[in-house]
TrEMBL record:
GO MF assignments: FAD binding; UDP-N-acetylmuramate dehydrogenase activity
Active-site residues, record numbering mapped to chain: 166, 239, 335
Gene this chain is encoded by: murB
Name of this protein: UDP-N-acetylenolpyruvoylglucosamine reductase
Broad EC category: oxidoreductase
Pathway, per record: Cell wall biogenesis; peptidoglycan biosynthesis
UniProtKB keywords: Cell cycle, Cell division, Cell shape, Cell wall biogenesis/degradation, Cytoplasm, FAD, Flavoprotein, NADP, Oxidoreductase, Peptidoglycan synthesis
Organism of origin: Pseudomonas syringae UB303
Length: 339
């Protein structure tokens, strides 16, 4: 079946903030051929292309004058297996959490700490998704991307991706690389990461002293469900700001004024702060202006109570950034991609 291009489509169902903007053109790509057709359409009609997955890391500030292509390709396969590792390949349009569950059902460990993150496999490398002490760089093998400038396929190794904290080469070249499929290095021998605060505590509370990867996944799903708003009930894009990594000197100054501040030392001597803590200290937790607000339980999450526009959410974000810079001397960087 060839690519179906529709015009004037509301993107409200396609972004987890639930912002109601229109795409000039919209299509779903189920295969590499669809993706190539979309590229050709965009060139022929001189209209830019915007690729999306689950829309869970986007802030849409206005109608989108592009051909929006939603990745809907499916397929999960083991492409290599030996006694040490299994390489699993998944198509970009695979929804992330069901993919994690499928790997666990195949007896493959490694992704359990990344359970219940919304979005798709294809977008996961974009910001090196991370949670509970694991990032995809820890289990990444390679990926195949289409170079939108040349139309050629390119293989990316771990080094090529230049993964950093919520960062990658793709985040800096959003209009160039279209990720088609990703391969992960998983294992039938679990090496669990339980050191991240509430995980071990949750397992202990359940009397689980020798957890399986499934136990870890279930514990993390339970913790997340209690702490984070479900986008199906309350529009949001998860953490709105990255946790800032600051110099040891600035950390010492903040600590003097706010002894309760928690810092996580980094390998390079800098210190990571919890952005949510800064925002809460500044009194923004639970703040609401019209339908744009800061979540009542989790200050790092901006929410749309219903009719907030992308610009209203952006304006709230800017006010928070200014306030945090004035109070603490810390620059907060937005995590979702802004369009
Ligand atoms: P989209 O929002 O659709 O796209 C994000 C960006 O990637 C856009 O710039 C888009 O153009 C680009 N893109 C999408 N697909 C492709 C592709 N195939 N090729 C090239 N570019 C592409 N993130 C974390 O890291 N950790 C968390 O724990 C976490 N928890 C979250 C909890 C909630 C409730 C929510 C709403 C979000 C959370 N996020 C988290 C953020 C988000 O889920 C992830 O960043 C996710 O990977 C985004 O996937 P997506 O498919 O929705 O991407
Ligand atoms: P939390 O447990 O309340 O902790 C607050 C912050 O402190 C976290 O963001 C985390 O940074 C940092 N932290 C806590 N324990 C740490 C440790 N042992 N070592 C290093 N850093 C530590 O966090 P939360 O908000 O409930 O989120 C739990 C996890 O899910 C975090 O990893 C978070 O990143 C992830 N998450 C991400 C999003 C998103 O949209 N990006 C949304 C929800 C949850 P890190 O963020 O660097 O881990």
């Amino acid at each position: 079946m060839s690519l179906q291009v529709q015009s004037a489509i509301s993107l409200k169902p396609f972004n987890t903030f639930g912002v109601d903007v229109q795409a000039r053109l919209f299509a779903e790509a189920h295969s590499d051929d669809d993706v190539r057709e979309a590229l050709a359409y965009s060139a022929r009609h001189d209209v830019p292309l915007l690729v999306i997955g689950g829309g869970s890391n986007l802030l849409l500030s206005a109608d989108v004058q592009s051909l929006v292509v939603r990745m809907a390709s499916r397929g999960i396969r083991i492409v290599h297996e030996d006694c040490l590792e299994s390489i699993v390949e998944a198509e970009a349009g695979e929804p992330w959490h069901p993919f994690v569950q499928s790997c666990l059902e195949l007896g493959l460990a490694g992704l359990e700490n990344l359970s219940l993150i919304p979005g798709t496999v294809g977008a996961a490398p974009m910001q090196n998704i991370g949670a509970y002490g694991v990032e995809i760089k820890d289990v990444f093998h390679s990926l195949t991307a289409l170079d939108r400038e040349t139309g050629e396929l390119r293989e990316f190794s771990l080094q090529d991706c230049a993964f950093g904290y919520r960062d990658s080469v793709f985040k800096h070249q959003v209009a160039r690389w279209l990720i088609l499929r990703v391969r992960f290095k998983l294992s039938r021998v679990a090496r669990l990461h339980l050191e991240y605060g509430p995980v071990r505590q949750r397992l202990d509370e359940q009397g689980i002293d020798r957890p399986t990867p499934f136990d870890v996944s279930r514990a993390i799903c339970a913790i997340r469900s209690e702490k984070l708003p479900d986008p199906a009930m309350l529009g949001n894009a998860g953490s709105f700001f990255k946790n800032p990594i600051i110099t040891a000197e600035l950390y010492a100054t903040i600590k003097q004024q706010h002894p309760g501040v928690v810092g996580y030392p980094q390998d390079d001597g800098r210190v990571k702060l919890a952005a949510g803590w800064l925002i809460e200290q500044a009194g923004w937790k639970g703040y609401r202006d019209g339908d744009a607000g800061v979540h009542k339980l989790q200050s790092l999450v901006l929410v749309n109570y219903g009719q907030a526009s992308g610009l209203q959410l952006l304006s709230l974000a800017r006010r928070i950034q200014t306030d945090i810079a004035e109070r603490f001397g810390v620059e907060l960087e937005m995590e979702p991609n802004l369009y």
